[in-house]
Amino acid sequence: MGCRQSILSSPNPTPASLSSQSSADSIELEEILAEIPIHCRQPLINLPVQQFLNVYQHHLVGKYYFGQNKFLLAIAHEFQAMSQLGDMMPNHKDHFIFVDICNIVSSCFLELHVVEGAILTSQWALNITEKYTPTNYKTISYQYSRLGIAYQAKQAWKEARYYLTKAIDTTRLTNEIDEEYIRKLEADFDLIKNRIIDNTQVSMTIHELQPNPGEIMEDFCRRAITEMIACNAEHSTLASFKSEFERLPNKQTESEVNDEILNEVSENLENCVRVSALDTEEVNFIAAQFKNMCMKASPLLPAIIEAALTTIIDRIKDENLDADNEQFISLKQSAFIFSYTDESENYKKGVRVFEIRKKIESTDEQ
Q1: Which of 51, 66, 224, 271 has the least C-beta neighbours within 10 A?
Q2: CB under 8 Å to 274, separation ≥6 — which residues?
Q3: Are residues 27 and 107 in the same domain?
Q4: Which residues lie in Polar residues bias regions (predicted)?
Q5: Residue 120 lies in a domain
Q6: Distance, CA of 48 to CA of 45 (rounded, Å)
Q7: Confidence class of residue 247 from pLDDT cuts 50, 70 and 90?
């Protein structure tokens, strides 16, 4: 019978490999724990090693995409990390490991001008930091300054001034005062009342987003993304039509898919996973996104591509798959698992979302 491997039982585990695009070949588990206060490590130590590293990889990929200015992709991966870590640690949903995740999400929201989302995630990061490291004045000051910047972007000058003042006062409590950091905060403080935020070059309308009463952060963030999609569509900055994020699959469309279409879509699907090699353990997309990424030059409509992908995946899963169909056999024998759902948490209910996951070899000991 296999036994569950844990961080505690494996002091030197082999970490999950990162994509070469993330500028790091691998990460040692000890390096992750080193960033976590000692008194916060036990919930992580109790987790299965490989599962934890696979989930944490979403955070690393999110940081990579943030560095590439691909903010929606960064948010998507950070939400995956946030959600799955929350599921793995149901009694520690405010664990210290969420601080860095919140900071990345907050920065992405600021770049996308979803200021309320930035404020909400920055506040959560501050709350966690103050709870677990109340004397880490340098980090707490940093979190205060992030909130000040977010309120400054909102042009809420009173709140911005309050949090920048807190940042300055808190950093003065540290043993080694960073004078350059203080000068920067003070400069922001001096300019805060007179600063004019120029929105003329913003590619999407800045609009107020407020969390609903009792709305948890994950629900608010999901709604924020939906509204960002609508806003991008309104200003023609979305690669796909807004309707594609709301269109529901039609079974009848599958009857319009012939062998030529199946071959074209399956070839592009295989090329996609072979060339990209997937940046993380799994990726989710709708048909319009697949067309934009892998079939931009094709005249096929997203609805037809969706029907073809559905048929291909159904046949891949078919245990009686015709051995003569080499294209589908190749996909079936690849290092990936293909699936789809109409119940994705990240899209409107009923929208067909496709998923590609890397096959993971079992590490259970016999």
Answers
A1: 271
A2: none
A3: yes
A4: 1-11
A5: yes
A6: 8
A7: confident
